[in-house]
Amino acid sequence: xxxxxxxxxxxxxxxxxxxxxxxxxxxxxxxxxxxxxxxxxx
Amino acid sequence: xxxxxxxxxxxxxxxxxxxxxxxxxxxxxxxxxxxxxxxxxxxxxxxxxxxxxxxxxxxxxxxxxxxxxxxxxxxxxxxxxxxxxxxxxxxxxxxxxxxxxxxxxxxxxxxxxxxxxxxxxxxxxxxxxxxxxxxxxxxxxxxxxxxxxxxxxxxxxxxxxxxxxxxxxxxxxxxxxxxxxxxxxxxxxxxxxxxxxxxxxxxxxxxxxxxxxxxxxxxxxxxxxxxxxxxxxxxxxxxxxxxxxxxxxxxxxxxxxxxxxxxxxxxxxxxxxxxxxxxxxxxxxxxxxxxxxxxxxxxxxxxxxxxxxxxxxxxxxxxxxxxxxxxxxxxxxxxxxxxxxxxxxxxxxxxxxxxxxxxxxxxxxxxxxxxxxxxxxxxxxxxxxxxxxxxxxxxxxxxxxxxxxxxxxxxxxxxxxxxxxxxxxxxxxxxxxxxxxxxxxxxxxxxxxxxxxxxxxxxxxxxxxxxxxxxxxxxxxxxxxxxxxxxxxxxxxxxxxxxxxxxxxxxxxxxxxxxxxxxxxxxx
Lengths: 42, 524
Fold this sequence. Notes:
The complex is a heterodimer.
Chain A: H1 7-29
Chain B: H1 5-29, H2 33-38, H3 45-56, H4 59-72, H5 77-106, H6 111-118, H7 122-155, H8 159-207, H9 211-219, H10 227-230, H11 246-260, H12 267-273, H13 279-315, H14 319-322, H15 330-338, H16 341-378, H17 385-405, H18 411-435, H19 441-461, H20 464-470, H21 472-477, H22 492-507, H23 517-522
Helix pairs in contact in B: 1-8, 3-8, 3-12, 3-13, 3-16, 4-7, 4-13, 4-16, 5-11, 5-13, 6-7, 7-8, 7-16, 7-17, 7-18, 8-13, 8-16, 8-17, 9-13, 11-18, 13-15, 16-17, 18-19, 18-22, 19-20, 19-22
GO biological process, one term (chain B): proline transport
Family (chain B): Belongs to the sodium:solute symporter (SSF) (TC 2.A.21) family.
Membrane topology (chain B): Multi-pass membrane protein
């Protein structure tokens, strides 16, 4: 893909892109959520 | 590319005045010790994200690891994957929010204090502090060397002058302005780094004829891998090394795991979470933090290998040969040879920013550890701004001395060593502390001891990269390593973490006296 023949290498670019998308969506969905006060500790 | 000295000096002078001015702004906003230590626990999400990223990414990541990837290829992109998955997603979502909340609840101002308070133990504060004070100057010295070397080659300033000037400017704003000055300057420096690395990627691909053409050219260079590297498992610059080979061991266990997982145990990064006002601030910081980390490491590990195509086209040799065998010189040489004048200056500011932002955070962490967690506590007082300022100055002097003494091409190695030790000794106990309502002090104590001990023994007697450099194994046993290939390439981090996690898991159920919230609050 894009000139890189080893899938174990081009896969890294794909994973980075997916992770980046995940972070963007997570930030957007939880923009106004203060979600760290209810997970059981203290 | 010849760079106009007057223009460069003018831009650098403007940059330094701006950074010191921002540092002064941080100083003006610092009213109490909480401001100095955790930026008043009220930092803007964008500043948290950029400061986290700029602290994480130093010249080691760009010059050192960029040069290493020029040697070993794009397999280092797995480190970028770990950096975003572990260093951003897990760090912010799973750990950052807990660190912020528990830190505020227990009133902790530093990483050692947070860890110690979670286990109600002063001994843990001292032990953690001792690890940082002993090991962090190694990483700091590596950052200093990276910054000074680039200033030397770009501005033509003598190396020692560059080293001392660089250290002096950063120490100035860290000492006076504490974490507010550090984080505000980090944010500006982070923005410069984003621009610099973005332009570097685009210009590199334009110069090499486009993404597919450039990657294909590198892909077709597999037959040019030096025999010394191919015999150790390297197959090309766009392919993974042979599974289990010495290079695979180095790339995966030292560089990828050492740094990619080690990020979770970094005290200077964990403190960033304690500066957030609430969980919302951390949620908002995640997208920017992720973009930043991918742009920094991803560009370095892509452009690094591609420099081989450039140097093969222009001077008919591999990047490492063009750089005279010194991997740390590859990226600076490429920038100075291939890039237009204006970009050489922008990239110099990018590297200066990377070095200054990491250095300032390390200095702040080391100084507050020495001045606050160790000296002030030993004298029976808590934290004071003055004690921390003295701690910062002392640790800066120690790091400069180490930077002068350290051998040439070990920037990436020193970084991996520091992160490896932190991870092996602290990460399992730290994760147990933030995830368990009633953590086990017994398990944490022995986990830390086993992790640090295992890491140290493997580094001194088995892992060739350190054992050969230290020479202790050779002096005692007449050999550089007590184990044979490929085990002599297995990073001490793996041994240390396996030991510390095993001890932790075995002892947690056996401990009948778990720590309660009252125990935690009792420790002042």
